[in-house]
Amino acid sequence: MVIKDILDSMEALNKLNNAHGMSSVVAFRIGKNIKAIEGEVKVFDDVRTKLLEEFANKDENGKPIIDKDTNQYDVPSDKLEALEKEIKKLQNEEVKVDIKKLSLDDVEKADLSPRELMSIEYMLED
Fold first, then answer.
1. In whole angstroms, what is the distance from residue 14 CA to residue 82 CA?
2. 78-108 pLDDT, tens per residue?
3. Mean pLDDT of the residues in the chain
4. What is the pTM of this model?
5. DSSP string, 60-109
């Protein structure tokens, strides 16, 4: 699995996490999956933030400039392509996560869309 798969599944995982009426075993498996995945997302966010800081314009003290209105790093347009390339490489990094498998019946109560189901395909068993 690559980090992008995890990032793409976050919406569906949040929906699963908030669904009511699931058995305790299914709720436990979903919770374990989310906890395992959160660790990978945290590492991704930390590295992504370091990349943004590296590519961003700096103030007179050498600190990255963050736009006050958008709360985003001020990255010069001539560095955007290189930054996006680095983030894409990071998103395609393989990770190993101990995923507890679920069936379609297990997640039925969450009323996931087809797109959301596809995003959590890595945790569904046949």
1. 32
2. 999 999 999 999 999 999 999 999 999 999 9
3. 95
4. 0.85
5. TTSPBPB-TTT--B---HHHHHHHHHHHHHHHT-B----PPPB-HHHHGG
For the record, the structure tokens of 20 come out as 């009511």
Measured CA to CA, the distance from residue 18 to residue 36 in angstroms comes to 17
Token representation of residue 55: 């590519």
With beta carbons less than 8 A apart as the criterion, state whether 82 and 55 touch. yes
pLDDT for the residue numbered 126 = 74
Among residues 1, 10, 22, the alpha carbon closest in space to that of 115 is found at 10
- Helix, strand, or coil (residue 19): coil
Q: Which structure tokens are listed for 3?
A: 């980090």
